[in-house]
Amino acid sequence: MGPDLSGSNRKNLDYLLENAIDPSATVGADFRTVVIAMEDGRVLNGVVSQMNERTLTLQSAQEAITIDRQEIEAMKTSQVSLMPEGQLQKLTDEETRDLVAYLMSSVQAPLPPE
Q: Among 14, 27, 54, 67, which lies 20 to 30 A Cα-Cα from 102?
């Protein structure tokens, strides 16, 4: 779950590194996490993918949930990115170079079959 990278500033190394090292530094409005407290005590979080007068659709990493807006007790937008911090720390130097090279290239890897 994330933005289409084909239109982003992929050729700018500083841009890529800033977003990989500190993903919460600049979070686009379409990708801000929303934390929702429901009247029944549940707490949900994800990105609002659709909203109208009656319902709100929340996209989490696992699923899309449509919620009746009248059942929402409170809703708060977070400034924290959905992309976890420290992702590059898990990679070797070679894996990091490969990732940056891929992100900066104009080639799209084939998508897996649905």
A: 27
